[in-house]
Amino acid sequence: MTPLISVGALAERIPRGSVRLLDVRWRLDAPEGRVSYVSAHLPGAVYVDLEHELAQRGHPELGSYPPPTFAQLERSVRRWGIDQGDVVVAYDDNDGVPAARAWWLLRRQGFEVRVLDGGLRAWVAEGLPIEQGDVAPPPGNAQIADVDPGVASIDDAARAPRRGFLVDVRSPEHYRGRVSGRDPVAGHIPGAINLPTVAHISSIGTLKSAEEIRATVAAAGIDARSDIVLYCGTGIASAHSALALASAGIETRIFTGSWSQWALLSSRPVAVGSQPAAALRGA
After folding, report:
1. Measured CA distances, 259 to 26, 74, 112, 265 (Å)
2. CATH of 4-125, one of 3.40.50.1820, 3.40.250.10, 3.10.250.10, 3.90.1170.50
3. What pLDDT band is residue 77 in, cutting at 50, 70 and 90?
4. DSSP state of 221
5. Deepest of 10, 79, 222, 232, by most Cβ within 10 A of its Cβ?
6. Helix (H, G, I), strand (E, B) or coil at 271
7. pLDDT tens-digit profile of 87-141?
8. Partners of 20 in beta bridges
9. 3-state SS, residue 131
10. What is the set of active-site residues?
11. 71, 80, 214 from 57: Cα distances, Å
């Protein structure tokens, strides 16, 4: 089953009341998306607070945005009005990056979970209806199981280049160590291949075709049949790459601590430059 849903297919389902919409408006430079949500959202959509419902804060040793506990996620899912077996569609206004986090956390929880291809912009471009205000549905009855969504530990990430492939989905500038951002050191995990998540996004904000994504993966020297671990800066953008590769039939795991966890540990080696293990620094 594809993890995506088109604007046309979603527009047909909404009047039947057979879908729960999640508005995951979030950006690193504008993490509070509620104001934008209240101004305009898809009919019936519930606002999802990524930083407090799709992550657990206060644990910097685990990275910037470690996944929520199963109990935390269950409380959030019920607040969103989701019942067991519901169809869930997540969307955003940021090329599907934050919506992919919701998809990744829920994909093995017994729901049919999709991401709206093209997000809010594609919906508006088709002239489809928009609502204002907040939506507070009756609490749902969904139950969240202790099911691994596809997490790789920091040690899994360290071993990944020897057992399969470790893929850094950040920009080349961050990968090469030219930009440190908020982290104490710049560079990448030794052995990681750089394949930015933006490589999978078309010029209009939709995902590229499955054939294009598979070709991009192959061109990067990655064997789609191998064990693939993804990481990014904070653990969010890697979910988008997981979504893109899943749409092409490629299964992956995510090192959720990502660079924000690795860079905190002086015991972890750092590579800089354009090659997977170029110019190693550290132990």
Report:
1. 20, 27, 31, 10
2. 3.40.250.10
3. very high
4. T
5. 232
6. strand
7. 999 999 999 999 999 999 999 998 999 999 999 999 999 999 999 999 999 999 9
8. 88
9. strand
10. 232
11. 15, 20, 35
